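Morning, I've got a small favour to ask if you have a moment. Here's the protein in full, and shout if anything looks odd to you:
***
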Amino acid sequence: MSQFVSTEAELEAIYGLPAGAAVIKEIDHISDHYRRFIETSPFVVLATSGPEGLDCTPRGDPRGFVRVADSRTVMLPDRRGNNRIDTLRNIVRDPRIALLFLIPGIGRTLRINGRAAISIDPELCESFTLEGKVPRSVIVVTAESVYTQCPKALVRSRLWDPSLHLDESSLPSSGTIMKALQQGFDGDTYDREYPQRLKETIY
């Protein structure tokens, strides 16, 4: 007997079908209650898909940085990053996108599945100016499915429990990791200069 599940029928035989609140909470638009989640969140994870595979990236700013334009549309600025632009590359080739919003201290999360486009409209980009810096583009997401996720994962992980929070020094630094990957890389200098580099390039 195979130990791997390969069909939806096999999955349903094991798990059954969703019912009750799990089904009721999923809608095709952003309700007033769901809007509250979005406008309170300072952090969202974006998942996209491209020819090379899947990508998942964190985005954060002061809460409310994801703008609810209407009941079907949210917008978020593409702030300065490492210039890999994996998410943007994926969007121009495959517009499907998923967003997962987190709020510090809150167990429930909010999910939006839909399609994205990249706007470089000057006025729109200007409206997302922060610390005097204008984003080069804005990701515009049309929602197709919106729903909250129950808090089980965050409760089990105790994500917001301060007693479990670690100090950065408990893990290998970025400089240490890159030094191991590239011979001759000056990891110590990279780590030492990073705080100032972050301050200068965060926006």
Summary: DSSP finds eight helices and seven strands in the chain. Residues 4 and 10 are 10 Å apart (CA to CA). The mean pLDDT is 95. The two ends are 55 Å apart (CA to CA).
